[in-house]
Predict the 3D structure of the following.
Amino acid sequence: MTGLPTPLLYIGTVVIWGTAWFGITLQLGTVPILVSVAWRFLAAAAVLFAILWHRGERLWFPPRILATAAGIGLLNYSFSYFLFYRATVDLPSGVVSLVYGLIIPLNLAAGALVQGVAITGRAVLAGVIGLTGLALVFWPDLQRFSVQSTAILGIAAAAGATVVSSIAQSAWVVFRRTGTPLMPALAWAMLAAGIATMIAAIALDMPLGIEWTPRYLGSFVFLVLASSVLANLWYMELLHRIGLGPAAYGSLVYPVLALAISTVLEGFAWTWLVVLGVVLVLAGNALVLLRRA
């Protein structure tokens, strides 16, 4: 699953996670978000374990390895998800996207620390161009945004989720040096996250049932197989191949793809600011994909 050329891994991850936004909106409604997330990662872990079992690959590892994978999973797939969903309660999606853009400088710094990857002028320029483009895309949201007590909580949640996500990704890079295969590590990480999130939902007395409709089930299958399993395998491989910083630049494209879907399905109106912003975002990502001098 991770034998593809690096550009295809990058583009595939961006496309899947960029369209996952619409899949998430199809799950909103009667099922609590925490419950949907719990079932999503439990199902994703089951898929990964089934693939490993079918291939006859190793499933069990020393307790220290399993504990590390579980800890990273709790950070990456449970805690950070909760904070991001919490942020969307108080903030427009554009503001959340901009806050998440902070993962680029965070991952560049982390890459210098844990991978010895120098922070180049091209990397900085790509980040500035991309974040400027994203700000233009969501300029109407930013104009309507006012800093109030609830908004500050939302910003804190989004920033916290971004920091947690960067820490978890850095931990994955270090963890890969143990020689633990990627797929079983992800399987155990997602299993731990799913169990922890489900325990939290039970503790909060949430109903654990799902919505048996084509809308919910279709989005659930996509989020499990494409977003949670395939895109995560590809992205973790990207972290290993191109480094923490460059891999994070795809986060600038996710909102742009979400807007494209919204244009087709929800009648989103494009303006010259949006067009200019999209061009800048794509230009920033092109700098990442170009071979370094």
The radius of gyration is 19 Å. The first helix runs from residue 6 to 25. The chain has 13 helices and no strands.
